[in-house]
Amino acid sequence: MRFKSLLLPALIGLGFGLSSAPALAQDCNPPKILFVMDASSSMNQTTTGGMTKWEAVQSAAHAVFQAHGAAARYGLMTFPGATGGCAAGDVLVSMAPDTGSTIESTLAALNIPADNATPAGQTLVKASQLSDLPDYVIFMTDGWQFCDIDTTGAPVC
Predict the structure, then answer these.
(1) What is the chain's mean pLDDT, rounded?
(2) Owning domain of residue 122
């Protein structure tokens, strides 16, 4: 009898839960994700798997687009910038919906010169100052900060 006395309130409570108002559609703004990729000379080196480091990052980006292509607004920034050396990177593809194939073709067409440096810090600073600020950054590199960062006038932490 005790089981029946507990079952009835549970079923009534469940019935009230099922009769609640329908869920309203939410306004969903997919996150903005900026790929920041190292296009320095060392990315031409072959990995133990037989592909170059550059091919490995392209493969990783492809996997993200295959699994989550419609889930975000992706963009692409590579470093160093167009002038090479220690120039901060440039945005090559702006963050927008359905940019996976554009990013992949941009990466495939990119030529990595033999004398490119690694201005990783400068590029991340530049990414943090974009007018269209990303929600997330996927930072892909094989190395360390190669170029000196100008700290003149930088705040002391």
Answers:
(1) 85
(2) 32-140
Instruction: List all residues 6 or more positions away from 90 whose beta carbon is below 8 Å from its beta carbon.
Output: 77, 78, 79, 81, 82
Give just the sign of the alpha carbon dihedral 89, 90, 96, 100: negative
CATH number of the domain enclosing 102 = 3.40.50.410
The dihedral sign for the CA sequence 69, 71, 77, 79: negative
Q: Kindly state whether residue 44 falls inside one of the protein's structural domains.
A: yes
How much is the pLDDT for 143?
Answer: 81
**What pLDDT does residue 102 have?**
98
Residue 5 maps to a domain: no
Between CA 118 and CA 89 the distance in angstroms is 10
CA-CA-CA-CA dihedral for 33, 125, 145, 116, to nearest 10: 80
Give 54-95 pLDDT, tens digit per residue.
999 999 999 999 999 999 999 999 999 988 889 999 999 999
* Number of structural domains the chain divides into: 1
pLDDT at 25: 60
Residue 47 lies in a domain: yes
Which value, to the nearest 10 degrees, does the dihedral of the CA atoms of residues 49, 110, 79, 32 take? -90
